[in-house]
Specification:
It is a single chain. By secondary structure, the protein is an alpha+beta fold. The chain folds into four domains: 1-63, no CATH class; 66-200, no CATH class; 214-396, von Willebrand factor, type A domain (Rossmann fold); 399-478, no CATH class. It is built from nine helices and 26 strands. The radius of gyration is 25 Å and the shape is globular.
């Protein structure tokens, strides 16, 4: 919090109840105080007390977020939630403001600038949600700005102030964004000889596509989907239906709101020209006329109606505007865990809307061992995102993944070192195996020396995995300095 006279008040993290007590006590004493609380995984609330008349107070928030992959290769998507839509159901008890309607928010506007830095020249920057101005080159406030490559830096700003009626989305394309990377951060206290590391990679498993699958498409037709959202859902469904694998596939379309219905009440049907035409006609008549958003019951009924003996992929098309996050995630997690190894269940999400609940959509995909893609209400080309969802759904489930950093001494500082026999047992299996390359499909993993991060010079990474209940041998990847 920054006061009008320039005084900066730095916040600190406390347990929620203790933080409230400290805030309330400060307000009662007549002091200026502020409190920020996480009311929901994607909803934060800031309270400011005892602001003098005509006093201006600036609230400054700093947070870190992960950048998700977009449908194009070497492309990432930055999503800044700025709009809270009306949500169905009862808010958590800890939520002191119900967020029941966006009309209760005073008119506000968004204006910001963004600095971008990539490891390779920037190929494209675009925003499907707002009109932006783009200027290539580094921020002039950066040190040694004259020595920096202008092609790897950019500054983005809104062309004009924007109302807080939809989230801001920006996509960035640059060579090498799909490459593995590792971010390391030292402990701020020098006396702590520890480092936090985050490894990001997309393993290149050479796995066969799943055969004899069932696809259940669950469409949100609640009132919050009215207008552009249900229109976007119809467009996405048309693309998805025509992209389903033709050979030996079953499929079903289910709609939900206050209740749920199925296109074919008797169960999924084989994918052929006749059923495709029936499904397409059904999609053309879809409207957002199903009432509330009882997504948990709809998921439970979809899981109960699946065809046993086949791998089943459920695709949920929704804006996620419901408060029942914990109940939904528990339902998905339980069903996925209970599915047999030879007929696993997976749940993926296509989040639709300019104010989609990222907590709901990303949460379902995470516990459902699936994939999530987000589309705005005005986006028209869904081909790439639908293709990614289907490709992921047709890939066998990977389980029991472990990473050996090749640093036993560091591992001992965190937890007892596991016996070497644990890894030898995995490598002894000679059953169905998958060759893995975490760098590039064209690179031989046994000879690759690509560098993942300067923090991992002269190190190696051992990755273990198995699929479809078949143990697979481990692969070792070495990295050395250039």
């Amino acid at each position: 919090m920054i006061k009008q006279d320039g005084t900066r008040v730095v916040g600190r993290v406390e347990e929620k109840e203790e933080a409230r007590e400290i805030y309330n006590a400060a307000v009662e004493r007549g002091q200026q105080a502020s409190l920020m609380e996480q009311q929901h995984p994607d909803v934060f609330q800031v309270s400011v007390g005892n602001i003098p008349a005509k006093e201006q107070v600036k609230i400054e928030l700093v947070y870190a977020t992960e950048l998700t992959e977009d449908e194009e290769s070497d492309s990432i998507r930055f999503h800044l939630p700025v709009h809270i839509g009306a949500r169905y159901g009862t808010p958590p008890q800890s939520t002191r403001w119900p967020f029941s309607s966006s009309t209760s928010i005073s008119p506000s506007f968004l204006n910001f600038t963004m600095s971008i830095e990539t490891i390779a020249p920037i190929a494209k920057i675009s925003s499907p949600s707002h009109t932006v101005s783009i200027e290539l080159g580094p921020d002039h406030q950066l040190p040694n700005v004259q020595e920096l490559s202008s092609s790897k830096y950019a500054r983005v700003s809104l062309s004009s102030d924007a109302a807080l009626d939809k989230d801001f989305v920006l996509t960035i394309k640059s060579a090498g964004l799909d490459a593995p990377r590792c971010v390391a951060e030292l402990h701020p206290d020098p006396s702590h000889n520890t480092v936090a590391m985050a490894l990001t990679l997309v393993p290149r498993f050479k796995l066969p596509d799943l055969a004899r699958q069932e696809f259940i498409i669950l469409v949100d037709r609640s009132g919050s989907m009215e207008g552009a959202r249900i229109a976007a859902a119809r467009r996405a469904l048309v693309v998805m239906l025509r992209a389903l694998p033709y050979k030996d596939s079953l499929f079903q379309i289910r709609s939900f709101g206050s209740g749920s219905t199925a296109l074919w009440p008797g169960g999924s049907k084989p994918y052929n020209q006749q059923t495709l035409e029936e499904a397409t006609s059904h999609v053309d008549g879809m409207r957002a006329d199903y009432g509330g958003t009882e997504i948990r019951d709809a998921l439970r009924q979809s899981f109960a109606a699946r065809t046993l003996g086949r791998p089943t992929s459920v695709f949920v098309l929704t804006d996620g505007d419901a408060w029942d996050l914990d109940g939904v995630l528990d339902t998905v997690k339980t069903a996925v865990a209970a599915s047999p190894d030879d007929s696993p269940l997976r749940v993926s999400v296509l989040g639709i809307g300019d104010a989609v609940s990222t907590a709901m959509c990303e949460g379902i995909a995470r516990v459902g061992r699936g994939t999530v893609m987000l589309v705005g209400e005005q986006e028209t080309d869904f081909t790439g995102k639908i293709a990614r969802l289907l490709k992921a759904a047709r890939t066998p489930v990977i389980s029991n993944i472990s990473v050996d950093w090749g640093r036993p001494a560091a591992a001992e500082a965190v937890k007892p070192q596991q016996p070497e026999e644990d890894f030898e047992t995995v490598e002894e299996h000679e059953q169905q195996q998958a060759t893995l390359n975490i760098f590039d499909e064209t690179v031989d993993p046994h000879t690759s020396t690509k560098q993942m991060s300067p923090h991992l010079l002269q190190s190696s990474c051992l990755l273990h995995q198995r699929y479809s209940n078949h143990p697979s041998r481990s692969e070792t990847f070495s990295r050395a300095p250039d």
